[in-house]
Write a structure and sequence with these properties.
The radius of gyration is 18 Å and the shape is globular. It has an 8-stranded mixed sheet with strand order 1-2-4-3-5-6-7-8, with helices on both faces. The N and C termini lie far apart (41 Å). It has one domain: 3-Layer(aba) Sandwich (Rossmann fold). It is built from 9 helices and 8 strands. With 324 residues, the protein is of the alpha/beta class. Helix 3 (123-132) links the parallel strand 5 and strand 6 (141-147). Residues 32-134 form the Serine aminopeptidase S33 domain.
Length: 324
């Protein structure tokens, strides 16, 4: 358990197919959650990326729990407890299957409210989109909020984390941006979160621009992208952003936002609370759209993330309206 906030954050381990995934968990006090926010870290980081304690209010976990959500931040396959079993990590499609299984395990013993909402950073955003593109995701995925990920690289592919075998000054600047964007203690805290990028993840890194269109075309839930003002890994000019959103032609809703006063590692900087509030506001809008959708049509079986025995008696056949 970590301290310094009104809501406790504790360590948790989930199991799927013999793989143990470690993570952090914060739950709303005295009430069942409205939904589960699943936080998915980026390459070379850990679950604690979303639990900054260098200043009060920066942690997504405590903020979400205070607002009535369970927040589960998981170490992706190849990180944390699963690193010994998966020293080379998993390929993206395998990570998506593992995530689905882990969340089903989580839902068997804890209330999940309306379902899951994915908040993902950088390489974790690839996993979030791959999970959202799963054919059996059902009604249990409410939406996806991604920061630090585009589809057109702003660097040479061999400069991606895990590719060049170094942590050179240039890579450091691309991860963090100007020092003034982070409170004192953020870099010391950041060093404790750093982990090697698993080999399979590093190998797949340069392939994302060509894989993104196929994955994006299968996503049906609302998606929100956030680009930091000082993002340096991905192109986020107007034409690139328009093309990024254009591939999500089946998504119920697509938004692209800019986060001022932030570098790539938004959730470790001064802007963390602002970004987290906006991500949770997007979740609130997803819930609102579901609750106010036109009634009619049969309730669908809850698939993908949660097991069949957790079917919900849904009154709304159309969970969201297309607001694009």
């Amino acid at each position: 358990m970590t301290g310094g906030e009104s809501v406790p954050v504790r360590e948790i381990t989930l199991a799927v197919d013999g793989i143990r995934l470690s993570g952090l968990l914060a739950e709303p006090p005295h009430t069942d959650p409205k939904a589960v926010v699943v936080a998915v870290h980026g390459g070379g980081m850990r679950a604690g990326y979303f639990d900054s304690r260098v200043r009060p209010g920066l942690s997504l976990l405590t903020l979400g729990a205070e607002l009535g959500y369970t927040v589960l931040s998981l170490d992706r396959p190849g990180y944390g407890a699963s690193a010994a079993r998966l020293p080379a990590g998993q390929r993206l499609v395998e990570q998506a299957a593992t995530l689905h299984g882990a969340l089903a395990d989580f839902a068997r013993c804890r209330p999940v409210g309306a379902g899951c909402f994915l908040v993902a950073h950088s390489n974790g955003g690839k996993l979030a989109l791959a999970a959202a593109a799963h054919e059996d995701v059902g009604d249990t995925l409410l939406g996806v909020d991604i920061s630090g990920l585009g589809h057109r690289l702003a660097v040479d592919p061999e400069q991606l984390p895990g590719r060049d075998g170094t942590d050179g000054r240039g890579a450091w600047q691309r991860h963090w941006g100007p020092l003034r964007l982070y409170p004192p203690g953020a870099f010391r805290r950041g060093r404790s979160l750093v982990a090697p990028v698993p080999e399979r993840e590093a190998q797949e890194g340069p392939l994302w621009p060509e894989r993104y269109p196929g994955i994006a075309a299968r996503v049906r839930v609302p998606v929100r992208f956030t680009f930091a003002e000082h993002e340096q890994w991905w192109r986020h000019d107007e034409e690139s952003v328009a093309d990024l959103a254009g591939h999500l032609r089946g998504a119920l809703r697509v938004e692209v936002a800019r986060q001022p006063h932030a570098g790539h590692n938004i959730s470790l900087g001064w802007a963390a609370r602002t970004y987290h509030l906006r991500a949770l506001a997007f979740l609130e809008e997803c819930l609102l759209a579901r609750d106010t959708a036109v009634q009619g049509g049969p309730a669908r079986r809850a698939g993908g993330f949660f097991p069949p025995e957790l079917d919900r008696d849904t009154e709304h056949g159309a969970l969201m309206v297309n607001s694009r």
